[in-house]
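QA checklist item 7 of 12: single-chain prediction sanity check.
[x] sequence parsed
[x] length recorded as 222
[x] structure emitted
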Amino acid sequence: MLLGILKSPLPATVMAIGLAFGANASLPKPAAAGATQTQPRMAKAGDRTGEVYLFRGILNVFSQGMDRLGARLRDQGFQVRVLNHSSWSTVAAEIAARRKDVRKPEPVFLIGHSLGADAVILVAERLKDHEIPVALAVTFDPVHPRPAPANIRRCVNFFQSDNGFGAAIKPGPGFRSALVNMDLKDRRDLGHVSLDKASFLHDKVITEMMRLSRPIRRGSAG
């Protein structure tokens, strides 16, 4: 089933996620692949600046923490889109297209879990080709991440080195910014499919984003 959904081969550890739950496992109802959780709207006073994209992992059922984090970010005034990891190239193209006619672009925030975390780096790489910076990249237990490209201003990676899935992120060529790899291997209450749902990690992400964004003083086009 997994191979029929994905177009490219995956590490055996990723495929094991779906098999580990079995055919009769009770799973959350999957969202449609690439579906967004909110549509662009008119920004209002009290909202926060920033283009925020959150990426779920395989099948959209193991990364419900991205939806929870997205809801909390909306409560803080951010406009958020939550998508499947397979949408990464479309997102990168949309961001690049909008930047052509924007004099003062808003900061880009990329967040993802599992294969969605891998997608965060892929989006950042594509944006680097267009000389577009990424204000903050946050990854939850990336499976097979590429090195962080130089256009990421701050990269935070929450992972577990001993759960069979998570991996540290290395700096790529020319990377001179902050790169934080937080290994949560001592948190036995967490695992690959629960790490993205940890509220204390969501708190850290929200704090980072509040620091890097600014409040909108008056209404404007979303």
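[x] summary fact logged: Residues 1-41 have pLDDT under 50 and may be disordered.
[ ] second reviewer sign-off
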